[in-house]
Amino acid sequence: MTRVYIVDDQPMVRAGISMLLAGEDDLEVLGEAGSADDAIAEIRRLRPDVVLMDVRMPGTDGVSATRELVSDVGASPDQIIRVLIMTTFDDEDVVVRALQAGASGYLLKHASPTEIADAVRRVAAGDTWLDARAAARIVERLRPRTAVSRDISALLTPREQDVLRMVAAGLTNQEIRVRLNLSEATVKTHVARILLKTGSRDRAGAVALAYRSGFAQPDDPIPGTD
Could you give the domains of the chain? Predict the structure, then answer.
């Protein structure tokens, strides 16, 4: 059962999405809130699998709330809070900031019921979900224009840096999972976020960027090695 928490300042939106998800046998709505300020403490207590987070709300906005929730991973690497951003705005700047803050995906509120449910399932499984109509533009915006000058350490969390170093060393997701004692879904989530934050098309692009920028060196020790 995938457990979901909904954060949106519009009661009708919350009710509609809650009713939609409640009709799915494998999805459960744990709770909902009208603001990020009201939601953060309860989300930390309930530990849902996926948080559906509105972007534009009074008080703490969805991007800031996402950053705060995802930062909890540092203490519990295997208990990632996955956030799926929701918006009615086709606003690339906001989406880019949300992804860079650690969101696992981006969904338009007017998406079909099937698409919303599928997005929740995919994100819960550790995948990344981008609205198909915006994906190409978002990835292009995230791609560094001058890769060598990018400070990767400033873009990635400490755990994401460890994972990128392992990817650069040629380790598979399974090998990374064993070394860091994580689930495979968690490793996939970290890799997806690395690609999004660095604007890399694939693992090879992320590795090339890591070496070109000086973030990784051929003789670097592999994290997790005793």
Answer: 2-140 (3.40.50.2300), 144-212 (1.10.10.10)
